[in-house]
């Protein structure tokens, strides 16, 4: 499976990031790839995923009052992860060519939110302490209904809600990691996503 993000789509994404700092794309990832990613998550037992923690390094801790998803990091060596990671490399290179963002690498994890799980409002990049520049979230839930809740709500810097994204199969969102607080509302059904972060290299930030 070889697939290519078009130059036209990369233009649209780059323009939106400059104009407003985020973009919601109802379909970016080709269906055959979404399908194999979904199959992988559906055939992974919940106990094979690890409880997600908050904070970094020595500060890292489990905090079920803040987040209750279970995660598994994607790996370049395994399919279908490599198919998704290849598209993210195209996105990184396309944005670097257009915006000179200096994006250096990408880390991402599958996340499963079981019924009752949520992730309280947070920002992905604590000012200065992390090198996460751009967040992506991709959803893998084929039969989502409004009653299932589990929306991803994105806020602006003044804490006004600016976007409420249904975690439906194919939905994809990209936003500047430092700028947009966001939360996952309590889900009523199992909710699958892939959250990822483009980073700049530490040396470029002088850490
Ligand atoms: C995260 C996150 C949202 C989602 O992992 O930081 O905000 O919908 N995830 O998975
Ligand atoms: Mn987040």
TrEMBL record:
GO terms for molecular function: ferrous iron binding; L-ascorbic acid binding; peptidyl-proline dioxygenase activity. Its cofactor is L-ascorbate. Keywords: Dioxygenase, Iron, Metal-binding, Oxidoreductase, Vitamin C. The keyword Oxidoreductase applies. Residues 99-200 form the Fe2OG dioxygenase domain. One of its GO terms (biological process) is cellular response to hypoxia. The keyword ATP-binding does not apply. This is 2OG-Fe(II) oxygenase. InterPro entries: HIF_prolyl_hydroxylases, Oxoglu/Fe-dep_dioxygenase_dom, Pro_4_hyd_alph, Pro_4_hyd_alph_FE2OG_OXY.
